[in-house]
């Protein structure tokens, strides 16, 4: 056992940071192959998932790292709850469910553990730089293609812009991550090169996000900017009277900005001001029948209204333990897919009240402990990014049950911020 653990090749393969970076690269590569060649890199994902399971077994059984502190132990209990809730049903005794658990393990163990010891934080910045530069190139080329109109880019003719992505929201979440990571780099070290990158990248990503009309991500970006402004004001202003005035000013700006985004035609596309269905607007909502209101809200929420109604109907049949990980079509049946576009509704479906309560406890621990380490503006940006992912998960897929490169990085950020070692240094 000691020889196995001390083997240099094994040690290299079992380092979580290598798994994380490989997953991010493959996910980004898949966007390219799917868009241009309609090819999904399934074999590479399969290798990653096998690698994930091997690393999890190694650090649980051999090094026992994943039993070493309360974060890992809390994650182990959450994993165990999901295992029990899934395999209590014979319909879930299938090989395909292992992929779902591999994604969950990738997030709460592999990604979280990659920088939890803070021995190599420079590697985390390499991953952030990779996302910044790749997404900047993709968004900039997408905008160039849109306004030059080359003809072969089909998205330029649609009402919602995709650019070089297969999905509108996929590009928007990358743009949001790129903006936040750019802010981190600038606040981490204010060099002319980093400032120049911010001046180029942030406007490109904001413009791209508005063209996608991805409402959730635009709102989360606005909230993130507001939180960062609050943090910077609190850090710089010492006089309490001035601080209250600054808070009031920021609150007014936030309310004005929110009003423009949500209620005026000058805000984001598909908002309350621009939405009409069968000639009716929100001004006509009170006069609608109950059936018309349901149809109207369902169209406005991109089918989420019906999804949530249907999911709660299913949840009532098994409220305590749910139906198992992503088991739509096996242990429960819904018309609109297994994913309710809401983290907690999904958790209720997969592990019932038991799993959802434990998930709330787990997330509370992560948020509470990680915010204690936000003693620099750069770290505050990372915390806001992680919190922003929780907000997104109330209306979109991600955070736990769907694979995304940026979500894997989000869990790596939580691992980084929850480690209490070297609290007054940034290695």
Your description of this structure?
The structure is a single chain. By secondary structure, the protein is mainly α. The chain starts with a helix and ends in a 9-residue tail after the last helix. Helices cover 67% and strands 0% of the residues. It has 16 helices and no strands.
Supply the key terms.
16 helices, mainly alpha, 67% helix
Tally the helices: what do you get?
A: 16
Shape: globular
Low-confidence stretches: none
Radius of gyration: 22 Å
Cα distance, first to last residue?
Answer: 32 Å
Structural class: mainly alpha
- SSE string, helix = H, strand = E? HHHHHHHHHHHHHHHH
Helix content bin: 55-70%
Mind summarizing the main beta sheet? none
Strand content: under 5%
Number of strands: 0
Mean pLDDT: 88
Topology, pairings included?
Blueprint (H helix, E strand, L loop, with lengths): L1 H5 L1 H6 L2 H22 L4 H21 L7 H18 L9 H18 L6 H28 L19 H21 L3 H21 L2 H22 L3 H24 L26 H11 L3 H12 L27 H29 L5 H16 L12 H14 L9
A few lines on this structure:
By secondary structure, the protein is mainly alpha-helical.
